[in-house]
Amino acid sequence: MQQDKPIPGKKSKSQFAVLLNWPLVRKLESLVFLAMFLAVPLFAFRVIDYTARQLALQNTAHDLVKDIRRVKLMAGKFNFDVTVEARKGLNGKPACYVLRNGDHVMEEIVLAKGVSMIGEVTFHPDGHPKSPATFEIHTDNRSLSVDVDGGGVVSMP
Q: Which long-range contacts (CB under 8 A, 24 or more apart) does 92-97 make?
């Protein structure tokens, strides 16, 4: 009988290598790669959606600040009270805020989808508000506030 002796210059296979089914291992590697390839865009879309919502919130707050400052100047220029009033979206109509004089709506600004707002301020012709006010701007999980103090100074804390 001949004993199993290693042949000089030739590597012997380990027991582990003999037990593995290499075509199956390659298929498993391909499956893992495909899963990673599909998972990355799903996370990317979530990040893009979250960023877009936060950007919509920031842009709405900045637009509101600009419009409040414009209303303050308008009240003095036209010598009548001007109000900035937030309105909720009802019956499929999106949320908005309006610039009005009494019951006359001068301008309506529609908010981005998913953004809502509450608050109201009225400016007299002298440029001072009737009373200090705070606007709360909301999206799904975040909110910002815009404050108008007694002197008519607008700020975003």
A: 97/64, 97/67
